[in-house]
Structures are given as structure tokens and as C-alpha cells.
Amino acid sequence: MEQRNALQLRPSAEARFADELAALKASDQGRRPPGWALSARAVRSFILGDNKLSIRRKFYGDDALVERALVALMSEQGLMLVGEPGTAKSMLSELLAAAISGSSMLTVQGSTGVTEDHVRYGWNYALLIAEGPTPRALVPSPVMEAMRLGRVVRVEELTRCPPEIQDVLISVLSEKVMTVPELGESASVYAAPGFSVIGTANLRDRGVHEMSSALKRRFNFETVVPLTDSALEIELIRQEVGKRLGQADITVNFPDEVTDLLVTTFQDLRRGQTKDHVPLSKPAAVMSTAEAVNIAHAAALEAAFLGNGDVGGAHIGRQLQGVIIKDNAEDVKKVRAYVDHIVKERARRSKVWADFLGAVKAMKDES
Amino acid sequence: MSVLDPAATAIRLFDAERNLHFFPIRHHSPACALHLREALRVIRPSAVLIEGPVDFEPLITELLAPGVVPPVAMVALPDAAEKGRGGTTYYPICRHSPEFVAIQQATELGATVRFIDLPSRHPAMLSDRRDRQDQPLLPMRETMFDRGAYVEAMCARTGFRDGLALWDGLFEARARGTDWRGFFASVGAYCSALRAASDPDELEADGTLPREAMMRSCIQEAIAARSGPIAIITGGFHTPALIDAHTDASRPAGAAARSNAWLVRYDFRALDRLNGYGAGLPLPGFYERVWQRLIGTDDAQSTLTEDILVGFRAHLIEKEPALTFSFPTLQSMVETARRLAELRGLSEPGRTELFDALQSSAIKQEIEVGAHPLLAAFTTYLQGDRLGDLPPGSRLPPLIERTGSEARSLGLSLDDAIPKTRELDIYRKPRHGQTSRFLYAMRLVAPPFAERVKGPDRVYGFRADMLMETWTYAWSPAVEAALIERAGDGETVRDVAAALLIRRLEDLEQEGQRNNAEAAFNLLSIAFDAGIGSAAETLIAAVSEAVGADTQLLRLTNALVIGQALNSRARAMPSDAAIKAFADLLPALLDRLARRIAELLPDLAAVNADNVGGAIACLAALAEAMADPDPPFPTQPLRDALQGLMSAQLDPQLTGAVIALAALVSLIDEAEAGQRLSAALAGAFERPGDAIRTLSGVMALAPQLFVNDSSVITAIDDLFGAVDDQGFLDLLPQLRMAFAELSPQETDKVAAIVAAAHGASEDDLALLQRVPDARVLADHLMLSERLRSQWQADGLAAWLEPAP
């Protein structure tokens, strides 16, 4: 495992932040909930940062949300993180699992293709035929593993799983036991202390499986919203892009003005009005911070490999296209109106905005 | 969790040399109140100085009288000379107000109690920047606890989400325990840091500095007269400016002014509204329960969290069942609140933890920040609905006194706050008419007092034939509070109502609505109902001006409908003096209005398909007004204008409406209307549906024209005969819209006429009605056609003949 880390595109949270977790563990004075690797307060510090232990803040936004989430996980309830795509739901669930259980790897990646084997257990068929149903032949799911070990299991995109899979979770969450009828009564797996479920879901997507009220009842819901504080968003983007470029050993000149342009554009379109309360039509496209980071990253790469290393408004303008235009003609019109009225005005006063305007215009003419 | 650096901002609260004890507080803070009570018991002061307007001092005795139940408020009304500065000054007091607790304790100890702030109507007390004239004035302002650089920095450092949560976490959470010295030292350090971070220019501008000069001067005075220790209780923000013995203590000018001050009953809802302006901690219902828990007056079988959440659930079950949550959810909520408090290092859950627990456990869906109805309901619940009380026979401000006696003289019962019902025979019994006008005036001035349950629609004349009105009314502290709020405008309900209406008129002007005839007529109608004769001339002049300036036909025609309803009411009550003031002025006004409408009617020729809706509505209003057999306005100019319109080139829908109106006012007879309509329907338009839109126009005003005249139906039938199937489908949407105006009976009648014209029998119609929808019918017709051709091809044509 350790050796493979170097080759992984993105190591797990517990690997990335191993130092911080170790430091927290060493200084942790608080009472640990049964089965937890850290006290709730230490987990809070891990996610929201702690200057004294030089723990970096990893989740930006609503601190109270993190506290409520921790309390939900300490109780009998599961935790359901909902919100638009790109609002860092999965990241938050990964961080919580890494800090609470020391591992974020027990994960069900939800999709319509998920079967009962993924949430209960499957069989090694060769052994099953050879030996019949024996514990050796049983292949546990991440959920079963989490119950056995008393850990947090993450179910990503829960609403994409078919209803029968969601139903399995109801009994797991309320009974805290998983029966294996094939192996007889004594083979049931009881949840060890520390077991809990973190689900994530995007309730706005069409075509998802609505959660039953029985399942909802077993979860505490937390809505993760996009950042509204532009200073915070700028800081976050800068950090994240810096990290990505650092890993690849790339240096570019990314002026503050350009980050500011990116964040302003995103905040305007996300809110449906500018800071001066000029109303505009909100595109349906997801305009999350994660998307902004992707744009900034792509713009930096373009500047580094195809340009002279100076990131400008034009780079952002060219990359914006990829986010906004995901075959939605309405959005194109809305963004066009935004560019024609609001960006044009700003372009008169600022070179960065003028470059941005030029790039977006050029793309439009092509399409 | 102590995050303060006491060394950096600590202030010396005990001045041993002068034997002064300073107590920095926050208004409506139970923690401050409890520690203060303890402290006073220990230091036994000979004098207690409180930050309160010095002119409110005489009210202290009244406040302590038996029978006073907080919430109450000390108020100062603006006097006549202050016209324009408006606004009532409020000093609200609840059971858990540190000031109230201090006054009680001081009295028990035999200490003298003095108020040491500037008089309530001193210019420095009025100089806060209010957004609106009629916003309340507050002697204390605590907005610095809610925002500002220091509060933000502290929140970032401690993880509390806002200034209020910060205060709760740092101070309310420390309410238990006997270490009042430590507690006030922390409050003092916190407040002095707040003070250090504030803008000195602002302190000058909002009157803080002269107020503090007054407080210092009062302290000096008290020192000179004292016989023992002195306790000085002020908002924590002021304390740092008071402790230095060497700061200038000369008294500002105007400090001796006395005002029109009263003690009045108050209620938690009104109190919480004031808190919105920075009067102190919000949610009085919640903090009062905290206070009762602290002093041990409620019986503590369960925790406060349990009490509140169980109470909230019971409240929901009774009042808002749709929001109720289950018992297991309640249990998980209590647990969540407790664990959150633990996580945040608090000894027990506070306000924030309760809200968080509710959100976390009970709301199973995605929510916009703070925007869930359950959270809103919880806020209202924690706001509380307690009403204060004063002993019988208390001194009351003149407006309340006079309003009360007028109500009693009209036979309304004001003895308790239970809602009562009153039926009024408004036209036939003069006293009932008077009562109705009084209630209308009260509805304007103090809305909580009266509610009209039944009666004719006074504005647009809907159900104008009703003779009776039914009202419910109840005299409560909320009514008194509303009256107090308006007391600056006059001493009788009528005066205040007149001032309010004139202000609304000014508001219209400010919103650029000066030329809105409909809005102006609405105000006039209100004044009429409330019998405010004194405002009649001003209002009528303004309305007349609006009529001359208004260019929107729809507003003018609506105004005509209102004016006509007003006039018929005036005629029904000719003997009443208050009404006469209006009745005399109305005819000239309506004359002007009608002529103005006639002047603008020709503009309808410019209306096109996009904005025809408004034009139709305006013709409909005109039809309503002109339906009066004896209209109070000249109809000839209107008829002339209509005549002109009939020969103008109009949008088809409008053509229909104009024909209908002309027929309704007998400008043309029904036969001519039918002819014109047939002609219009046969018209050639580039879009086939346009001819049908003529019908929609007729239907909107006078569907009977269409039903009564079968020649029109024949014309439509011809229109259909001329188009193919596709053409019919194109017409269908317009046709559906047009027919939507007909009643079912009328639709049946039309169907019978059409059927007769095509030689269909009633049986055919009945058969048709059994067909579930058009598609089934089409399928079956197609099948018949195939069968028919098949039989013909097979030489079986004879089968198609009816049986002999």
C-alpha cells in the first residue's frame, strides 16, 4: 500500500493529512466517543483548522454545520450531506471519515448499477461451490466491514442507488445488525461502536431515486451551500490551485486581479445579481467553487505550457466556456447577456476584464 | 472557554478611592441580571445609578407598584413643538432586565435609585440615524454587540457564528455561579475592546459622547450626596468612559428638560421588534425562561432544553400541525443540543444549540440558509407572547385615555383582552355608523384592535347591497403599544388617522406615484370609511391633482369605480356630518375624472395584441361604472369617446370589447351589435386566430350578447366551414380562450344552436357528450370511414343505407 501511494493520482485523506492527524492524536485531551480515533473537538480542529497545532482549515463555510454533523455521527443517526454538486460534500465526508475512523476507504460509490452485494455481502463463487456457504467464501461489503470494525462508511450519491439498496440501509441504521441467513443465526454481524453512515446526495438532479421517508428519518440532514464570501473563495481557490501546480512542479504568475475576476464572475452568476444588486439571469450550470478551481487550474496550465507563464483574463475567459456551455442553449444566452452588459462595462475600466471580454467574445463568434 | 486576554483590555470596575462599583451590562441579559442581584446584595450600596433617561425617574415608583407585570415600557411622547421629529421613545423592561432587577434589589436594600442618562427627548438622544420617521427611538442602542471588526475577529477566533452567539457563549453561559466579580470583569474587558474598535466620529455623531458627559456629571453629583458605596449600572459600552475620575464631568446643556413620560403595558412581540433596532438581547420569551430557571421559580423536573423543545412540539401540534415532528425526533433533538453544547465547551445548551438541534434533527431536506418554516416557527415561539400589565387606575397617555373613552361611549367593551364580536347596521342606525367609522379609524391607527369579518366591500363596491357589518375587536397591550407608537401624531384617533393618511399620500409622492389616481382614490376611500372629515380637503385636492396627471387609463377607470362606490355610500348616509365633508366635494371630482377618461379613451387605438389585457380590464371597469342607472358623473363625454372608438381601427379583441360596451350602454342595440360582430369575425387577418380574438373581447364584457344573437354564432360557424382541419387546429387555442368566459349553461345553449344549424338532433349531442375526449372521437370517426370505404369496395354499399 505505502509504496503505491507515490503513484496514486490522489492519495486518500488519511494519507494526505497523516501528519496533522498524528499531531491531533498526540495532543488530544478530550473524551473520545466509543470507537472514534479522535475526540469530537479534535475532529472539528482537523476540519476547521487550529492555528496552535498548525492544522490547516480544509472546509470553508458554515462551521456550525460541521459541529452539527459531528453530533449526528456521535448519535444513533446517520449523516446526510445534501446540496448542489461541487459544494465539497464528498470532501467533507472523506475528512470526517478519515478523522473519526482513521480511514476514509470504506466507501460505496453510488450509482444505478449498485447491487445488494455492494451494501450487504457477496460470495466468492469458486469457494461457494467448493465449500458451500462458509465465512471464508463470504465477501463483505464496505458497509459490513464498517459495522464489524466500528468505522464510518461513506455512501456517495445515495439517491442514485436503486430503492432496494436504499432500503438495506434503513435496517442497517435502525437495527445496527446485518444478518447472513446463509450462515445461520450466529453469523449476524453486529455494528461495533463507532459505526455510522455518511451519505451524500444531490437532491436537485433530475432522475434520481427519491429517498423514502423511512430512510430520511434515520439521517440528520445538512445542506452544504456554495460559498458566499468572495474573500474566502479567493483564498480557497488560490490554495487549491497552488497545491495542484506545486505537485506538478509548475510555476506561473497568477495575479490577484485575475482570481478576483474569476470569483466575481462566479458569485455574480451564482447569485443572479452583482454586488451592486444589478439583477441578471442565473444560468442552470453548476457554478461551484470546485468548478472555479478547475478553471483557474486549466487557465494556469494554458499560461504555463502555451503562454509565457502570466495568467490573464483571456485564459479565464477561454476556460469559462467549458463550464457554462454544457449543451444548454439557455445558459449560453444568459451568459451572453451578462457579458454584453456587465462585463463590457467593467472592461472599460480594467485591462484584465477587457482581456476576459475579448476571449469570451472570440469564442462566441466561433460557435 | 475563555478567549479574552483580560490583561489587554481589562478596566478597573471598583474605584476604592471613591467607593464606586461599576457594572457593565447588556440590556435584557439574564446573566447580567443575576450577577448584578448577587453583587448588590453583597456590596449593599447606598445609591444605585442606572443608565436611563433622567426624565423617566418619576416612573420608578410606578414601576414598583404592586400589580405591575412586565413587559412594560417607559415611553416619552413627542410634544407639539417637536412635530416632524416624530417617533415615540421606548425604554422596555422585562422581568430579566438587569435594570429592573437592580431597581427591585436597590429598593429592598433601601438604596436610592437614580437615572443618569440625558432626558429622553434631548437632541443627543434623538440623533440616532433612523431610516424612517416613524421608527421608534431608543435610549439604549447595542448594535455594536452584533457587528463590527472586533466582533468579527472574535467570532473567527472562537468559532461562534455571530455576535449574538458569541455573547451567549461567553457570558450567558456563565450565568450560574457566584463569581460576579470575575463575570463583570470579563464583560468589562469585552466591552472596552468593543469600544476601542469603534469609530470616535460615530460616537460624536450618534450622541454617545454628550450622554456620557451627563452620566459622569450625575456620578459626581451622587458622590457629593452619598452616604455609602455607589453602584453604577450602564450599558457595558459606556463603562470605560465613566471610570476615569479625571474626565470632564460638566453637564451638557438641556439636561434639565422634562418630557411627556408614561409607563405603559407592553408585549413580547413589540419588544422583539425593538430588539431588531438594537435594544438588547432578542427573543424575550426565551431569555425570560432562562431567567426563571436561573432564579428557580419554575419547577425544575426537567432541563430547560427539554422544557422548551417539548413545549414547542406541543405548540406545533396545536397551532401548526403541518410542521410537527415525531417524539423520537424530539429525543434526538434534546440529545443533539446537549452534545453540541459539550462540543462547544458550554455547560448547557443555549439559544444557538436549540436552533442547531432543531435544524439537524427535524428538517429532512435541503434548505436555503435559515429559510425553513420550522425555524421561523421556532423563532416566533421563542419570541414569546407574554402581555404586560399595569394595576387598574394607572395613569395613561391622553391618546389611550381618549380612545378608550370614545370606544366605551360607543358601547364597546374594553375590560379584557378577549376578542368580542359586534354587528353594525351601518346605514340605518347613526350610532352604528359612527361605531363603524371609529373601528375603521382604529384599523388604520392600531391594527391589532379591530378586524372586519363581514360587510360590503368598501373600496370597489363589491356586495354593496349588504347593510350589516360584522367586526371583532379586543383591547390588548398590543393596541396600547400601537397607539403609543402613533401618539406623536395627535391626541385623538381621528387626528392620528388623518396624519397617517397624509403621510401615506406623501409616501406616494416619494415613490413617484403622485399621479396614481387609483392609489389616491383608495386613500380617499379609507378616509371616508374612517370619517376623517378633517383630511377631506387635503385628500380631495391631492386626488384631483392625481386625476389630472394620470395617463394610465386602467388606474383611472378603477378610480371611477371606487369613486362611484364612495358616492353611493355618501348618499346612503346623508345626515352624517363627517360624511358630508366628502359628499359635497365628490361630484366635482368625479366630473373631472370622467372627462379625463373620455380624453384618454381614443388612445386605445394604439393598443396592440401584447398589451390588450389592460385595455380590456379598463373597458370592463368602465362598463361596471356606467351600469349605474343614475351615474354620479357625466356620461355624455364617455359615450362620445366610445362612438369615436367604434369607427377606429382597433386590435380585434378590443373591437369586440368596444362593441360589447357600446351595446351595454345602449349606444347601439343588440341587433347592430350582432351585425358588427359578424362583420368583425369575417375580417381578413394575416393570422387566422385574430378574428376569434374579437370574441374573447366580447366575452370579457358581455357574454350574453353572443349567446342571445344566433347570427353571431352562424358567423363563427361559417368561419370554421371555410378552414381545413389544420386551420381549425390553429384556431382552437383562441377559441378555447374565448369560450372559457361562458358559464356551463351558456355553453350548452350555444352547442344547441350550432347543433340545430347542422341538423344534428339532441341524441347526437348526448352521444357526443359521452365521448371521453377528442382523440377517441377522431379514432372512431376514422374507423367508420375505413369501414365505409371497405364496404363500398366490397360491394356492400347497400349496408350503409338506413334500415327500411
From TrEMBL, chain A:
Domain AAA+ ATPase, residue spans: 75-229
Gene3D superfamilies in UniProt: P-loop containing nucleotide triphosphate hydrolases
A GO molecular function held by the record: ATP hydrolysis activity
InterPro entries: AAA+_ATPase, ATPase_dyneun-rel_AAA, CbbQ/NirQ/NorQ/GpvN, P-loop_NTPase
Protein name: AAA+ ATPase domain-containing protein
Species: Bradyrhizobium ivorense
UniProtKB/TrEMBL annotation, chain B:
Taxonomic superkingdom: Bacteria
Pfam families from the UniProt entry: DUF5682
InterPro entries hit by this protein: DUF5682
Name of the protein this chain belongs to: Uncharacterized protein
Phylogenetic placement of the source organism: Bacteria, Pseudomonadati, Pseudomonadota, Alphaproteobacteria, Hyphomicrobiales
